[in-house]
Amino acid sequence: MAYTSAMMDQMLVFDRMQVRRNRDRAAPDYAAHDFLKREIAERVLDRMGDIQRRFPRLLDLGSHSGLDPRELDPKLGVEWIVSLDPSERFAGMAAAIGPAIAAEEELLPFAPASFDAIVSTLSLHWVNDLPGALVQARQCLKPDGLFLGAMLGGETLHELRAALTAAETEVLGGAGPRVSPFAELQDAAGLMQRAGFALPVVDSDILTVTYENVFLLMHELRGMGEGNAIAARRKGMTPKSVFLRAAQIYHERHAGPDGRIPASFQILYLTGWAPHASQQKPLRPGSAAHRLADALGATEQPAGDPAVPGRKPR
Fold first, then answer.
1. d(Cα 254, Cα 269) in Å, to the nearest integer?
2. Over 60: is that where the pLDDT of 5 sits?
3. How far apart are CA 57 and CA 45, in angstroms?
4. Predicted local confidence at residue 97, as pLDDT
5. Residue 109 is part of a domain; what is its CATH number?
6. Whether pLDDT at 79 is above 80
7. 261-273 and 141-152 as β-strands: parallel, antiparallel, unpaired?
8. Which of 65, 129, 142, 179 could bridge to 113 as Cys pair (CB 3.0-4.6 Å)?
9. Residue 280 — left, alpha, or beta (φ > 0 → left; ψ -120 to 50 → alpha)?
10. Domains in the chain: how many in total?
């Protein structure tokens, strides 16, 4: 299941208390399970490095254990980092050059125009009011400030979702939500525009990680703080037989020649800027100096019925 911007406006999809409990539980041993966070944070910072700008004041939104200042490229010019995470334990672990705050991504405690840049890595997919969180992030940026986020997208863990649904349906006669719904690429692009970011860009890629079995995958997810926090999840104990059957289904459908199973993580990268008068503006319709057909070496055809062999356009 993926969720749309309309659903995010109308529903409390996630139990935020459970999100915090999951993160608090994961924090002490997080370093043993943070490979995905580290990989995506490195990619986000690489993207920042491609921009010929300096960002003295930086907000790490949904920081987990925080950015390591020693790993920042000096040319970014970062002088001060604020780490914000809903988990008090994670906030207490942040080693950034600045304060660490335990607070909600949906209720940012900062004055307008406080930061030159905001980065967010693998946290926003747990936010109920994602449109509101993005608006607040944009308001916290100085004019022409950069927002660069990475969140899990709709293709994430589709293998696990299908296996658990099939197992619960077979064993219990019905399935409850066990894998978080994630935003789709087109929804993320629309949300950036709705939040008022200038020059928004959204793209994605897929990372595939293999595991010996589904139980090690689920253990890893708990270690990441990514356990089930869907508000409509089953509250009672799930029979062991459901997970045993899910493991069988997962292996039957997806195991490779070596017997290992793949787990897919789709990463959505969201980039946008706080509006500023110096930024490029789209051209006014009809103001182009050259015809697109000339540039492409094609024949211009009026809109209407498509041309077919032996028939002239009307």
1. 27
2. no
3. 15
4. 79
5. 3.40.50.150
6. yes
7. antiparallel
8. 142
9. beta
10. 1
Residue 21 sits in which domain range? 2-156+181-208+264-278
- The model's pLDDT over 42-63, given as tens digits with 9 standing for 90+, comes to 999 999 999 989 999 999 999 9
Alpha helices in 54-129 (DSSP H): 88-93
Beta pairing partners, 146: 117, 273
Quick one: pLDDT at residue 296? 54
Q: 62, 105 in Cβ contact below 8 A? A: yes
Coil, strand or helix at 306: coil
> Which of 28-37, 126-135, 171-180, 291-300 has the least mean pLDDT?
291-300
Residue 176 lies inside a defined structural domain of this protein: no
Does residue 193 lie within any of the structural domains? yes
Label the pairing between strands 261-273 and 198-211: antiparallel
Please, what's the b/e burial string for 163-179 (b: 16 or more CB within 10 A of its CB; e: otherwise)?
Answer: bbbbbbeebeeebbbbb
Find where tokens 């706080």 sit: 274
Q: Give domain status of residue 286, yes or no.
A: no
Residues 103-161 pLDDT 10s: 999 999 999 999 999 999 999 999 999 999 999 999 999 999 999 999 999 999 999 99
* 237 domain-assigned: no
Which pLDDT band holds residue 70 (cuts at 50, 70, 90)?
A: confident
Query: Locate tokens 């459970």: which residue?
Result: 18
- Six-digit token string for 168: 């619960």
Q: Dihedral through CA 61, CA 66, CA 68, CA 73, nearest 10?
A: -10
- As a 3-state breakdown, the chain gives helix, strand, coil percent values, each rounded to 5, of 40, 20, 40
- Kindly state the tokens that stand for 26: 């994961």
pLDDT of 291: 57
Answer for the pair 15, 229: CB distance below 8 angstroms, yes or no.
yes
Q: Is 181 exposed, middle or buried (0-12, 13-18, 19+ CB in 10 A)?
A: buried
